[in-house]
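Please describe our next protein:
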Amino acid sequence: MKHLNKIWVVVVLLTLPIMAQQSYVLPLLANFNPYPSIGYNDCWGYTAPDGREYALLGVESGTSIVDITDTDNLVEIAFIPSANSTWKDIKTYQHYAYVVTDLIGLGLQIIDLSTLPDSVTLVNTYTGFSISHNIYIDESNALLYAEGGGGIRILTLADPVNPVQIAFFGVPSHDVYAAGNIAYVSQGWSGTYGLYNVSNPFSPTLITQIITPSGGYAHNAWASEDGDYLMTTEEVPAGLTVKLWDISDVNNITLTDDYIASSGGRPHNTHIKGNYAYISHYWDGLRIVDISNPDSIFEVSYYDTYPNPGSQYEGDWGAYPFYHSGKVIASDRTYGLFVLYFPPAGEQGISLTATTLEFDTVAVGSSVLRSFEVVNSGAVILNVADIQSTNPAFSPGITSFSLHPGESQTVEVSFTPLSEGNYEGELYIFSSDPVADSLTVLLSGVATTPTDITQAPGVPSTFSVSPNYPNPFNPVTTISYQIPQTSPVKLAVYDMNGKLVKVLVDQQQAAGNYQVQWDGVNQQGQPVVSGVYFYTFRAGQYTQTRKMVLLK
């Protein structure tokens, strides 16, 4: 009598700590280097209302507008000239790009991007200030912050083509970032970062200052999206770390952790998107650092834009990670624009190619394999530490592995029943995936008493299946077949409508000659009616179907 072996088969991916953090090379989608003899500086990005994506690439002699939507075919749409300068900074607001070149008297270029992908237009050059090294635009408040001339200027973009200065504050500085009514000012050689209240942008006031413990040049700062943390870079001297500060209590700011590329190097700028910091690290290229645990930040990915040794300011100057598609651009001073890929924040890490595995009917004592793939669709290397089955009838062929982003691993599960019955069970996969804490694959199988199979001596040279004998038959007929090498074999009987009647063989078999009998009963053990039936033999890539007649 058949009995029920019932254990649900669930694949659960649990979040485990990564024992040793690993960093992988970002996928390169494209490299664009149209001005190798001139040189490059910063970059920024722009996504048009129609979804097309553009890189705004700083060239020492101007600004290159590049369509990066199709990474197999990057197209420079326009080039807006400027005076030659090592330094350039670019930001966007609405459908305008704003460009400063750190030379006295050049002001602020304003470029209209609304006619992309056909063209762009330089619509104005604002000359209300003489020089600026870096700018930032607080888009939610339509305010442009410009470093230069011994402090920070605030310009309203109520009329985007004709900015108007409304405030000047602070001390000689290098860079500025603003969000949530706070301006974060990198105050250069003072070795400090000033936090200013700009809730009234006409009259900013100093909240507090962060003093760098290493006394380096306060070069750049960027706040986390919740405003609780601030990451800072010190460009000079080389070898100083990128630092992460807890600023949730401005009266008690603390350093939580720091980072530098393995070579030491010279960090330049940092930008934060979600749980990741994107750091342009000069000759160490672009470095992506996980800051989800502020007390223990670590590198997850990188791309070395400058393969040569470096010592000064060679390599990756800027980066822009804010495309929704997952594209990330980096601007190398020598090798131009790099278009890379880092999966969007929140994209699930591990996924499965199947949600169910059905083993059909298997003879007791034999074994059948089914498989699914574990895919890493996320942004970081994932470790599968263990795979455990709660039902010994189902057994995984692999129990641990690591997956780089984009990689997959085939997991084979064998079903080896020891008694008749219906089987279901649970398989647990333990991984370091930070997003998907549980996924489920349902497995099922049926075990029956094995059909008598006899093996004749000798090793055949070809696959074949013979006509059954006798034919017509009543009540039993014999089917003979041969296989020249170890192969998965399936032999099944079907009725005139193609409906499965009985599986006679479904197992891995060694090379040899075999015979199997069918006694005219179906999968449920019930006698079938007289008529024409077909049996299909599959072994390796070989398939053949033959006809037989049951007469009662």
The domain at 212-341 is CATH 2.130.10.10 (Methylamine Dehydrogenase; Chain H). The CA atoms of residues 154 and 167 lie 5 Å apart. Confidence is low (pLDDT under 50) at residues 1-20.
